[in-house]
Amino acid sequence: MRKLIKPLVFVLALVPFAILLLRIFQNNLGPDPVQELSLETGEWTLRFLIIALAMTPLRRITAHVEFTRHRRMLGLFALFYATLHLAVWLVFMLEFRWFAMAKELFERPYITVGFSAYLILLALGLTSPRVMVRKLGKNWKRLHKLVYVAAVLGVVHLLWILRLDIGPAVLYGALVSLLLVYRAWFSLKSRRV
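Above: the chain's sequence. Below: its structure in token form.
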């Protein structure tokens, strides 16, 4: 049964992508398809980041090691959806105009924040293989703590984009805050012992 869990998690993580593809082929993305694709891929990035961050607390609370066995894959899916989000922006909004990209990065703070979060996720994804864990040693853990920075930047990016209907961003922000508070509490508790 345990061997089936990893492929099942992998398939479930691809379901949002499959639904998005289906909506594209059915021309069912609403009046502004590019905006819808951008929002959906961005929100799925945050959802997977939050799920990946929740794996360690769930393991500690439930004493089931199984949770952390899928943390890396879930984090890589956050990078996958973030890459789709970036691709939507580059292909459909900027139409591969690289100078426009540089201009947008410098002139629009919400894009700077989002792109910074993406660069962090990319660095974490590139250093996630076991060979990189061994090469980086203690620095690997330091680097991978930046996932919390990426999550906070992702929430700020979404808040800036939504402006009026900020409900989803507030929810994601609350979840990220809860995970940060748990991490801080656990660190303090561990130091006292």
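The CA atoms of residues 146 and 182 lie 16 Å apart.
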